[in-house]
Design goal:
With 251 residues, the protein is of the alpha/beta class. The chain has 9 helices and 7 strands; from the N terminus they run αβαβαααβαβαββαβα. A 5-stranded parallel sheet has the order 2-3-1-4-7, with helices on both faces. It has a two-stranded antiparallel sheet with strand order 5-6. It is globular. The structure holds BIS(adenosine)-5'-pentaphosphate (AP5). The site of BIS(adenosine)-5'-pentaphosphate has 33 residues, from α2, α3, β6 and α9.
Length: 251
């Protein structure tokens, strides 16, 4: 199932304005660049990578969505990790490497790609460096930053459509009919790991495991004269997209 996110009119208009602005044009692809979007749960990684994937026509690899799909399909792997996932636990690095390798074989990396949720640990960051070297691709990395208060509000109000992958928010992006997907009419649900008792532990796990991954990738990028670029993710979604696009356009 292909995940899709709802595109409110305001977002679509903003995207059009972004495309028409008198800046360097959006390139056809990301030209052999792996764009990594870091950020804690609820920072907007999915929202932003989905948008950039549409604008650049490049594939988006979202490890969290791949994992949830395994759970939905009740595969052996999905059944094994279901409980840990609902508690916010990470999947082990070896399994993630295997999943990613299988997926990368399907993609033309010369066109570039967007990474949402990978790397998430220091070993995963080193794995990305080795994949990038192997395929001769450049890495750009951004970190979406938002306060814990904002993240909790976003995660506790998120509603998702398991059928078509659309994402809503009770306050900032409510569906037209309560609890019903605007796109396919299915009933909306709350992600298991968005329950009140799991949100805080998930944010702690992010700080413990992913902050070292960001540090590791920073070391890699420093050798290339780059860094992980911070992005204020507390702004409206279209402002965050604009900010990312401007950074991507300006080498
Ligand atoms: P994953 O699916 O990647 O979850 P996450 O990192 O917890 O991130 P979220 O999907 O919760 O948030 P997001 O940043 O994408 O925010 P969104 O755009 O939806 O991973 C799930 C799990 O899988 C992990 O916990 C782990 O167990 C496992 N996993 C995945 N990758 C792994 C790996 N590499 N290694 C090991 N384990 C792995 O936005 C959130 C809400 O806010 C939405 O309602 C949205 O509408 C709203 N919103 C977004 N942006 C804005 C904005 N700017 N203003 C107002 N509202 C906004």
């Amino acid at each position: 199932m292909k995940a899709s996110r709802r595109e409110p009119a305001a977002f679509a208009d903003a995207a059009r304005r972004l495309s028409n602005r008198n800046l360097k044009p959006i390139p056809d692809g990301l030209r052999s660049t792996a764009v990594v979007i870091f950020g804690p749960p609820g920072a907007g990684k999915g929202t932003q990578t989905q948008k950039l994937s549409e604008l650049f026509s490049v594939p988006r690899i979202a490890t969290g969505e791949m994992i949830r799909e395994e759970v939905r399909r009740r595969t052996e792997f999905g059944r094994r990790i279901e409980k840990g996932l609902a508690e916010g636990q990470f999947v082990d690095d070896e399994t993630i490497f295997g999943m990613l390798e299988r997926r990368l074989r399907r993609e033309d990396l010369q066109r570039g790609l967007l990474l949402d949720g990978f790397p998430r640990t220091a070993p995963q960051a080193r794995q990305l460096e080795s994949v990038a070297t192997q395929f001769g691709i450049e890495i750009r990395a951004f970190e979406l930053k938002a306060s814990r208060e904002v993240l909790i509000r976003r995660l506790s109000g998120r509603r998702v459509c398991e059928k078509c992958g659309a994402v809503f928010h009770q306050e900032s992006e409510p569906p037209r009919r309560e609890n019903v997907c605007d796109d396919c009419g299915s009933e909306l649900s709350i992600r298991d790991d968005d329950s009140a008792e799991v949100i805080n532990p998930r944010l702690d796990i992010h700080d413990e495991a992913t902050v070292p991954a960001i540090r590791e990738l920073t070391q890699v990028l420093m050798r290339q004269g780059r860094k992980v670029e911070p992005i204020d993710a507390e702004q409206a979604p279209e402002s965050v997209t604009r900010n990312l696009l401007e950074r991507l356009r300006n080498e």
